Amino acid sequence: MVLFIEDEEMVRQTLSTALEHHGYTVLLVETGTQGLEIFMARQAEIDLVILDLSLPGMSGYEVLRRLRAAAPQAKVIIATGYALEPDQLEGGARHFVQTLFDRRVNAIGARCAGCLRSFLRWLGQVVNEN
């Protein structure tokens, strides 16, 4: 399951449609506060968080910091309209995607799939070790 925290409805709908097309279940929320509440309540079900940095109220950076404090292993992709370099990612996000919706929609789906595959490989190793 993917938790997508994004305040712009068009972006939420576009990306969730693309992710659902790739077979993901998507939880959509508009604010960082809502996102944190859902993450805390459903953490065991959430495989990936896609997080906008520019949110009303609590910023995406603050959401990321709190997510990392609660669950350091959480997989997070930053999706924002701002240009960032990888070394600008604060708080340990796994990937960064600029939310310009053209050819990048499929790239986001591919990165989500790659992130989830990495997590599942790691999980399989942990299970096999025990």
Q: Would you summarize the structure shown here?
A:
The chain has 130 residues and is of the alpha/beta class. It is built from 4 helices and 5 strands, in the order βαβαβαββα. The protein has a single domain (2-129), classed as Response regulator (Rossmann fold).
Structure description:
It is a single chain. This protein has a single domain (2-129), classed as 3-Layer(aba) Sandwich (Rossmann fold), CATH 3.40.50. It is globular and about 45 Å long. The protein is of the alpha/beta class. It starts with a strand and ends with a helix. Strand 1 (2-5), helix 1 (9-21) and strand 2 (26-29) form a beta-alpha-beta unit. Helix 1 (9-21) packs across helix 4 (104-129) and helix 2 packs parallel to helix 3 (60-70). The longest helix has 26 residues, at 104-129. Helix content is 47%, strand content 16%. It has a 5-stranded parallel β-sheet with strand order 2-1-3-4-5, with helices on both faces. It contains 4 helices and 5 strands.
